[in-house]
């Protein structure tokens, strides 16, 4: 089974997590048989190892990690590879793949530009 982890920085503010959880809910609705989880680097739970452990317990044998960052900064470039190395050691039967930072996808940059150019509602 293939699963998705939406990986973000994290925040103590529960409202900050709402967009991440909305993306996860949308994925779950579009692909009901594909497990999806949110995971955070710090400041809130679940951490990436905990989210992956839950997905593996559900039967995931392929996990795609989607860095929910606008660009490939320090967390995506340095922290995430270390975490993935640890996950591969802990879950040797699981195949891990990592997408590019979501903000670097041309579809995302086009959408952000489109939204930025909209006139605000008055």
Main traits of this protein?
single chain; 122 residues; Rossmann fold; four-stranded parallel beta sheet; 18% strand; globular
Summarize the structure in short.
Helices cover 43% and strands 18% of the residues.
Describe the structure.
The protein has about 120 residues and is of the alpha/beta class. The chain has a single domain (about 1-115), classed as Rossmann fold (3-Layer(aba) Sandwich). About 45% of the residues lie in helices and about 20% in strands. The protein is built from four helices and four strands, in the order βαβαβαβα. Strands 2-1-3-4 form a four-stranded parallel beta sheet, sandwiched between helices. Strand 1, helix 1 (about 20-30) and strand 2 (about 35-40) form a beta-alpha-beta unit. The longest helix has 17 residues, at about 75-90. The radius of gyration is 15 Å and the shape is globular. The N and C termini lie far apart (about 45 Å). The relative contact order is 0.17.
Spell out the blueprint of helices and strands.
Layout: E1 2-8, H1 18-30, E2 36-40, H2 48-57, E3 62-67, H3 74-90, E4 95-98, H4 106-117
Parallel strand pairs: 1-2, 1-3, 3-4
**Which stretches are poorly predicted, pLDDT < 50 over at least 5 residues?**
none
Class inferred from helices and paired strands: alpha/beta
Radius of gyration: 15 Å
Number of domains: 1
Name of the CATH first level: Alpha Beta
The second-level CATH architecture is: 3-Layer(aba) Sandwich
Mean pLDDT: 94
Q: Whole-Å distance between the termini?
A: 47 Å
Shape: globular
Number of E strands: 4
Largest sheet: 4 strands, parallel
The third-level CATH topology is Rossmann fold
Q: Roughly what percent helix?
A: 40-55%
Tell me the β content: 15-25%
If helices are DSSP runs of H or I spanning 4 or more residues, what is the number of helices? 4
Strand order of the largest sheet: 2-1-3-4
- In N-to-C order, the SSE pattern is EHEHEHEH
